Amino acid sequence: MRVRTLVTAFGIMLSLGAASCSTTAETGNIETSQIFSDSYGKVTDSGYALPAIPIKKLDTKFHRQIIAYPSTEKRGTVIVDTKNRFLYYVLGGGKAVRYGIGIGKQGFAWKGEAYIAWKQEWPTWHPPAEMAERKPEYAKYVEKGQEPSISNPLGARAMYLFDDKGKDTLFRIHGTPQWNSIGTAASSGCIRMINQDVIDLYSRVRPGKGARVVVL
Question: Exposed/middle/buried for 60, CB within 10 Å: 0-12, 13-18, 19+?
Fold first, then answer.
């Protein structure tokens, strides 16, 4: 009897241990197999000290997570849902990594298809001339550019979107120091992400025409 009790207890412990290896939740009707709410701490990256994100202040749906995502798109495709403020990186097998994003203000938003032609760590920011006309304080950066820093509007990473003819669309997927803009329409047209998230996405993307981006 004692042996049977020990075996049963051991089996329960194994079950609990296996369950603790992953987090499963429901976000609306979307099954979430893993959520990375603990991945927003301080990060030192290439000598730059990124501060921790007060992630509890941001709606959980905008935290990085792996979700069930049936799609006919190939693995590696990036899908941007501007309406719901999500970016999906298709993993294949009916799953995707979902990130919260900020998008362009009304009148500056862009939709269409492109590909990630190249990517850069800690990029220099060159605002377009049109932005400098609207905001003269940025004029000095049009030619010279703003050097990389934790306050740079492009954040820790940038991915550059080109059209199918190889022309720069002037739109970027990039990091931002303004974590509280995630879930809003606050940027001047580009797709912004929390720095810790854009570092994760950057590590997954392989530039080239196979790195398709669909902006809905």
Answer: middle
List phi, psi (to 5°) of 53.
-95, 130
The CATH number of 22-215 is 2.40.440.10
pLDDT in tens, 45-93: 999 999 999 999 999 999 999 999 999 999 999 999 999 999 999 999 9
Q: Compute φ and ψ for 45, nearest 5 degrees.
A: -130, 115
Exposure class string for 176-194: b at 16+ Cβ within 10 A, else e = bbbbebbbeeebbbbbbbb
Neighbouring C-beta atoms of residue 166, cutoff 10 Å: 9
Single pTM value for the model: 0.83
85 closest CA partner among 63, 70, 107, 67:
63
DSSP 79-101: EEETTTTEEEEEEETTEEEEEE-
